[in-house]
């Protein structure tokens, strides 16, 4: 970011993404679950595209291990924690994205919440020079969770989207209730899993280039 600060519209945030030349520019958006990362990433893509800059969103979520694998490891109930993702695969694909010339395809998995599983090649990055990488664990150290520390060095910049714990709690409850959990199950998942993950992510916040919080339609950069 070109050191913009204060309350910015998404269009202003998009303008703060540096102009790039031959190589791809990988912008990370980290933050706790429910902070609004996916929403901000899509809004940025829209504004970048409107400004004539080809951009695509490549989420970390597509690197969730499949339920079958998690079940076999006895880790299904912990789904969402750092070791329930294929961190090595994510790192390898980030590297591939950096190395592949603009114009050549790089398939990228997406996470399909309707079936609660990743889908291979859900999006294909090809002509886009700007790739917005969004997910919880982009700024973790290997001491926090093995395998994640290599991510930061593969991003050109990484923002951290923060949100108050009460807001996260409400949004995550709504998410789990929409995903066929009972209220008790949803509350338990938030208390015992999501908020623990949020605390882990919060400890990685000092590694971000910029910290953002949503205010109205805009984002406060501080
Ligand atoms: N700036 C915002 N203002 C109000 N609600 C928001 C904002 N950003 C996201 N949300 C809502 O919060 C919920 C979680 O957002 P999402 O982008 O899925 O978060 P994340 O990807 O960080 O888990 C969604 O229901 C979304 O509509
Ligand atoms: Mg998301």
From TrEMBL:
It comes from the Bacteria. Keywords: Kinase, Transferase. SUPFAM superfamilies: P-loop containing nucleoside triphosphate hydrolases. InterPro entries: P-loop_NTPase. GO terms for molecular function: kinase activity. Pfam families: MeaB (PF03308). PANTHER family: URIDINE KINASE. This is Nucleoside/nucleotide kinase family protein.
């Amino acid at each position: 970011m070109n050191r913009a600060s204060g309350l910015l519209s998404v269009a202003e945030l998009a303008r703060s993404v540096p102009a790039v030349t031959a190589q791809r520019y990988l912008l990370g958006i980290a933050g706790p679950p429910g902070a609004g990362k996916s929403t901000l990433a899509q809004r940025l893509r829209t504004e970048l595209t409107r400004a004539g800059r080809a951009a695509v969103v490549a989420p970390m979520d597509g690197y969730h291990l499949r339920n079958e694998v998690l079940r076999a490891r006895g880790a299904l109930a912990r789904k969402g924690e750092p070791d329930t993702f294929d961190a090595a695969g994510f790192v390898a694909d980030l590297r591939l994205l950096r190395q592949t010339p603009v114009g050549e395809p790089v398939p990228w998995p997406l996470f399909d919440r309707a079936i609660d599983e990743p889908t291979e090649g859900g999006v294909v990055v090809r002509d886009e020079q700007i790739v917005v990488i969004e997910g919880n664990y982009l700024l973790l150290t290997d001491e926090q969770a093995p395998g994640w520390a290599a991510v930061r060095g593969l991003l050109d910049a990484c923002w951290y989207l923060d949100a108050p714990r009460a807001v996260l709690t409400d949004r995550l409850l709504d998410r789990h209730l929409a995903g066929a959990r009972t209220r008790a199950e949803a509350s338990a998942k938030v208390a015992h899993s999501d908020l623990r993950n949020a605390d882990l992510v919060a400890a990685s916040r000092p590694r971000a280039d910029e910290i953002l919080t949503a205010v109205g339609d805009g984002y406060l950069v501080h």
